[in-house]
Amino acid sequence: MTVSDTTSTTLSGIGVSPGLVAGPVARMAPPIPEPEIATLEPSRDIEKECERIALAAQRVKKSLELSAAEAKAEARTLLETTAQMAADPTLTSTAQAMVREKRLVPERAVWESAGTLAAMLESLGGYMAERTRDVQDVRDRIVAVLTESPMPGIPRLPEPFVLVAADLAPADTALLDPEKVIAFITSEGGPTSHTAILARALGMPAIVGTGEKVTDALSDGDIVLVDGTKGSITINPSEDALRRARELASRVRVFNGDGATKDGHEVQLLANVGDAAGARSAAEAGAMGIGLFRTEFCFLDQPEEPTVEAQVEAYQGVLEAFPGKKVVVRTLDAGADKPLPFLTDATEANPALGVRAYRTTRRDPEVLDHQLEALAKAEAATEAKVWVMAPMISTAGEAEAFTQKARSYGLKTAGMMIEVPSAALMADKLFEHADFASVGTNDLTQYVMAADRLLSSLADLSTAWQPAVLRLISTACEGASHRGRPVGVCGEAAADPALAAVLVGLGVASLSMTARALPDVDAVLKSVTLAECQELARIALDAATAEDARAAVRAKLPILEELGL
Ligand code: PEP
Ligand code: MG
Predict the structure, then answer these.
(1) Catalytic residue at 194?
(2) Which of 42, 72, 194, 242 is exposed most, by the fewest CB atoms within 10 A?
(3) Shortest-distance atom of ligand 1 to CA 443
(4) Confidence class for position 221, pLDDT limits 50, 70, 90
């Protein structure tokens, strides 16, 4: 949609990470296409063409080194390794040999030479196989120089900018430097994709699913105001709009670590984290513990299973941030948009419905054993209270097998995620085995509504405001209450302050979210009593549509307007 006044134009998409910022647009160049197999015209000087390859590789190496010098820790190491690859003589000398022997055009020769090198590294396995990505990255950059195409990847500018791209993979998003990239806008992507989740964790306003028309309308250097709450993008914003953005950015709300409703009903407000740094900032933000540690985020790029020692180190770093507090650790949730090469099968036709998450134990049970062993060791070395849960449990048999196995490693509190409708419907039976459950509303919504969470075109279905999703959460809470087991929510629904009140009314005992959402959720919960939350839950369960549920609940929470939420 486009709304224009005399100077500004407002475009819209799906706001997935809140915040209001303004800055210049920098577009991410499209991926470099494979150059055609073509030979040099007879008039071309072979040696000059070989020289062009060497110069292009030099230029790529220098620009990567410059970027590395400016980048922060993790990104710096990555860029330095890629720069080393650009300096590797094998890549250039093989390409030059192809130009001399086959008269291939340089860009094609570089492409083929990189293919040979990547295959060789792949066959060596381990650390060497991990370098395949660097070879491809360097190949694309050299080809871009040779063909005078825009450099692929995240643009590198001296000033902070708003990144505009077709799509971003979770691995790319995790490496964005929030001091450089102040917001991002993508034409593709859904509201509960892991890219959106990472944007919220980084505190980076983000708008996805705008469609190509919107991203095409944004040119490098355009000044835009990005409202990640509303999903609006204003080109050439007015001075007034910019002032309001600055004002809102300067308001700081804090959470004191005492989650409760107005009448003192305790609601644990916990954090979702993916690594030790995230856990430390969550502790600083006042989180009462961790409600979801996505362990797979520690190993997203690794081609092979991490050793038990490496796992102990990664888990210990997170547990150490919360001595004496609850830390809910989820076992590896690989699959769909989080493939782990050592655990998931990239050739499945429907990965969201395939051998993913807990189901990977059918094929590789020892990976879970190693993880539980590492977790027990990490727990023994720290003072955190570890609760362990498995993702995507679907049957009582799976709940029984997982919890028994976890306990056999000395992990006392073992539970499950409720993300598959069958688990919510059969909750009373599953709680015969599980000590607790955490509802993953992102996947639960995807499976109840049969709507891929990555698709922006189905965003209206992909919301936990859907009464069908809320009814299943209510069923899960009832199933747990017979046995006095706690149910939490760790999907994105927990970070929506209005929905959080509804979830408390449904009987949810803890809400886990990106640490940045804690103050807003806390402020709204402190404005209502438990009885009022229960009334809001009744209203939402009784609504015919997600839009009706949201509108009716929000109308009863005037504090949302006051807080600008
Ligand atoms: C969920 O599905 O809601 C969840 C918390 O797990 P993830 O988003 O990592 O799939
Ligand atoms: Mg999930």
Answers:
(1) yes
(2) 42
(3) 2
(4) very high
